[in-house]
Amino acid sequence: MPISIPSSAGSRISAKRVVIDLLSTLPPRLAVSVAALVRGAAVLGIGENSVRVTLARLRARGLVESDRRGLYRLSRAAEPVNRQVRSWRTVLEEVVNWDGSWVAVEESALPRADRKAARRRSRALRLLGFEALSPALCIRPDNLRGGADSLRERLAALGYSPRPFVFEVAAFDREQDDRARALWDTRTLEAGYASIREGLEKSAARVASLPVGEAMAETFVLGGEAVRSIVLDPLLPEPIVDVEARRALVEAMQRYDRIGRACWKGWAGESIGLAMSPADAVGLETAIAEAGMAGSIG
């Protein structure tokens, strides 16, 4: 049966993305058979050979592991990024009122010769919403629960090495503050909040009428678009960005998550409670790339 995958996103589905994201839906440390992965991937137009080749490559890189022949799960090395992706449901709880202060990461003393480590640091910073105010100073608003201490630990968990020099900045002068607030493309962020939310709402209204395979494919693709947007969002405060538009997107995805779980329940089996649905797990492969893990583990 042909599967209707939205053209805007379907072309970006890869075997690597599908395998990682299907594994990420399962409860931690639960292994799944190759046959189950092949069935799930087939819904998305990915063939059995591609799944098997991808599993071998991911295992060589240390991103997946197997308990015994034919049973695979995400490795412990992938867990920090997996936790970051799973946190999308509670992302609104991470944000606190902003008092105009900032969190900064100072990098002037870091070695530049190791380009792989530098890329890993850059990607970890991006995943947590930092932007460069100067070549040696990356900043973000101090509006996340736990402040600098929490961000220091999260950066380290995402592969930032050596241990980051993270501190709070009470205030910049007016010129620097204006520059800081303009570092993020908020117009694009806000347009994305609206367009992705609209896509989720339209899909939610029609998905029950679709054949099972088409419903699985559509929730995988559209849910993934939304989760990537949420996971990679810098979580900026008012007045830098429209936080109510972001809240509306997250709440729309929370509703869509329930639809995705229902669509994919047959794949997981009635005895397995999905930790998240493939509709909301599709951000993991992207986040692993953003954190620089895929090329650094081996």
Written description of the protein model:
It is a single chain. The protein is of the alpha+beta class and 298 residues long. The chain folds into 2 domains: 1-93 and 185-298, no CATH class; 101-170, Alpha-Beta Plaits. Helix content is 54%, strand content 10%. The protein has helices at 7-10, 15-24, 34-43, 48-61, 79-86, 91-94, 115-127, 147-157, 174-181, 186-206, 212-231, 243-268, 278-281, 283-291; strands at 32-33, 64-68, 71-74, 102-106, 131-134, 137-141, 165-169. The chain has a 4-stranded antiparallel sheet with strand order 5-6-4-7, covered by helices on one side. A hairpin with a 2-residue loop joins strand 5 and strand 6. Helix 2 (15-24) packs across helix 14 and helix 5 (79-86) crosses helix 14.
Compose a concise summary of this entry.
This protein has helices at 7-10, 15-24, 34-43, 48-61, 79-86, 91-94, 115-127, 147-157, 174-181, 186-206, 212-231, 243-268, 278-281, 283-291, and strands at 32-33, 64-68, 71-74, 102-106, 131-134, 137-141, 165-169. The chain has 298 residues and is α+β, with helices and mostly antiparallel strands.
Which key phrases capture this entry?
single chain; 298 residues; alpha+beta; Alpha-Beta Plaits; four-stranded antiparallel sheet; three-stranded antiparallel sheet; 14 helices; 7 strands; 10% strand; globular; disordered N terminus; disordered C terminus
Portion in strands: 5-15%
Structural class call reads: alpha+beta
Number of strands: 7
What overall form do the CA principal axes indicate?
A: globular
Q: Cα distance, first to last residue?
A: 38 Å
The mean pLDDT is: 86
Number of domains: 2
Order of helices and strands: HHEHHEEHHEHEEHEHHHHHH
Number of contiguous helices: 14
Strand order of the largest sheet: 5-6-4-7
The largest sheet is: 4 strands, antiparallel
C-alpha-based Rg, rounded: 20 Å
Unreliable sequence segments: 1-11, 290-298
Percentage of helical residues? Answer: 40-55%
Oligomer designation: single chain
